[in-house]
Amino acid sequence: MTVHIPHARARQAGFTLIELVAVLAIFSMVALMGLQSITSLVRSRDQLAAEQDQSETLAYAMTLLRSDLKHAVAMPFQPPGATQEAALIHDRTALRLTTGGRGTVPGAEDSGLSRVIWRHDPSAATLPRQVWPGLAPANTTARSPERIVLSDVRRLTITSYSRDDGAWRATFGTQDNAPKSSLPDAVDIAIETDAPHPLRVVVARP
């Protein structure tokens, strides 16, 4: 005799809709966390690269400025069609000096005797540098174009010291009767940028 036993309804294979929604939610959270981690890493890398570039630029500017001051020579400069200038002239925001006898500095156009001009451009917040080759150029075409050495410069302050009066001065060589072939005994230059503290270069003559 044959016995018929009713069998249970076979369960359908696969995921239910709730299970699929849960899996997609978990996957989305993991993907979002991964994307945030990658974005943070890229941002950190870019920030470190920018900080390194800025540090290299600041180091180069300080090296070049210090080299100019160390190689200042007490020789006047004769600009074309103008009055002879003292060997070194500065006010609080600009510096003009005769340099010579320097070694090779990367990026410096001047070798031998030359006239170097640094000035702060407050409207552009830059610190450009310009060079006259020689001390008696025939015309203004000999002057090199201004080259921006530093950007984001908020303020430039220049003072100089003379043993004769034992005081720091905001100007040097600007007076009409100032000696043309003299140099201060020390020069102090402070540059304010976006850095937390001012950059400072102090050079004293022996």
Question: What proportion strand?
Answer: 25-35%
Q: Report the average pLDDT across residues.
A: 83
Spell the H/E element sequence: HEEEEEEEEE
Give the structural class: alpha+beta
Termini, distance in Å? 125 Å
Number of strands: 9
Strand order, main sheet: write it out: 1-2-3-4-5
**Total of DSSP H or I helical runs spanning 4+ residues:** 1
Ranges where pLDDT stays below 50 over 5 or more residues in a row are none
Helical residue percent? 25-40%
Biggest beta sheet attributes: 5 strands, antiparallel
Please characterize this protein's 3D structure:
26% of the residues lie in helices and 25% in strands. The model has no long low-confidence stretch (mean pLDDT 83). The longest helix has 54 residues, at 17-70. With 206 residues, the chain is an alpha+beta fold. It has one helix at residues 17-70, and strands at 88-90, 94-99, 114-119, 126-133, 147-151, 155-162, 167-169, 186-192, 199-204. The termini are far apart.
Q: Descriptors for this entry?
A:
26% helix, alpha+beta, four-stranded antiparallel sheet, 206 residues, 25% strand, five-stranded antiparallel sheet, elongated
